[in-house]
Amino acid sequence: MTPDPLPLPQKLALNYAPAASRDATAALFALDTRLSELVAKANEPLLAQLRLAWWRDELGKPVDARAAGDPVLDAIGQWWGGEEVALAGLVEGWEQLVGDAPLPARAIETFAEGRAGAFAALARHTGEPEAAADARAAGRLWALADFAAQATDAEERAIALTFAEETERRAPRERRLRPLAVLYGLALRSLAGGGAPLVGGRRDVLAALRLGMFGR
Question: How far apart (Å, rounded) are the C-alpha atoms in residues 35 and 70?
C-alpha cells in the first residue's frame, strides 16, 4: 500500500511490481508524487523551496534522526536505506521547476536527470544493478514525456520534446523493474502523440496492461 494516492500512470505501473520490489517502488513513486504536489500547489516559490529543502535535509539525516509521522518519509526510511543521495537528487530536480515560465532548458534537464537517477537507484536497490543504465534511460524519457504532457508553456514543452528526441530508447527488462518498463512504454506513446497525456484513454490503459504483463 502506498502512503499517498498516486497519479494514474504510476498507479497502473505499480500493479506490476513483484513482491520483491513493490514496497521500494511504491515508496519512490509516493515521494515523487509528494514532491510534485509541493511544486504544483505552492502559491509562493519561497514556500515551495522551503518545503523541498525540508525533504532534502531529512533525507540527509540517519533514519532514526528523521522526523516521524509522515507516511512518505517513514516509507523511505523503511525501504530506501543507502540510496538517499539519489533521492536528494530527485528533490533537487523538482526544485528546478519552482519559478516563472518559461523555465530554462537547464532546469528541465536537471529535473529529468533527478528522476532518471532515482530510477537507476531503484534498480540497484532492488538487486538489479546491471539494469541501472537502462533504468536511468527509461526514467529520463518518462520524466520528459510527463513534463511535456503537463506543460502549459509552449516553449517549455518544445524543450522537453527536443530533449526526449535526444534520449536513448532503453528500458529494463528485469521482472523486478517491470513498473519502469510500463512508464517507459507509456512515455513512448505520449511522445509519439507530440506530448499527449501518458494515460488519456482506454487504449493507454490497455497498453499499460500489455506492458505490465509482457514488458513491451
Answer: 13
